[in-house]
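Take a look at the protein record below and tell me what you see:
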Amino acid sequence: MNDRRHGLWRYAGLALWLAIGATAAEETKTAQTLPAVAKPFAAPDFTLKGEDGKTYRLSDYRGQVVLLNFWATWCPPCRYEMPSMERAHRKVKGKNIAILAVNVGEDENTVFAFTGHYPVTFPLPLDIDGSVIQKYPVIGLPTTYVIDPRGNVTHRAVGSREWDDDQLLDRLRKLLKP
């Protein structure tokens, strides 16, 4: 494939990702949905370094509800939802609900620069080579999975949400009850 055609395909793919995210962001203005997955499945474990240099393992969060978000700095809906994720993190911190926002395909310098504009205090693991996102059925960014305390994916949200919405947070809290 020549370079020009390869570049066109790359831009077409990027446009598709943006269109999916923008459509999902538009839909979330009226309803903060959190669809259940048809058949819950065991969340694939991973170990990733964060932009802070720390190592994050999904298995370290067993016993908690985990909001596992896949995002990128170039993604407008991802940037839109990041402040609400920080507010949600502040509301649920220490209450057995964790937020992990896995950045896809970017390095620590890019993510560090992003946090200068969108400061967050929850972990931002880096999936630089895309090996983790390939283990999850992601169709666009942002995509967020809810993982129950037993390590099963129970819900998936494609597109941005207002994660600090009390109804969404109540749904996460209900997953903590036996």
User: Anything to note?
Assistant: Helices lie at 3-27, 76-92, 108-117, 166-174. The longest helix spans residues 3-27. The longest strand covers residues 97-104.
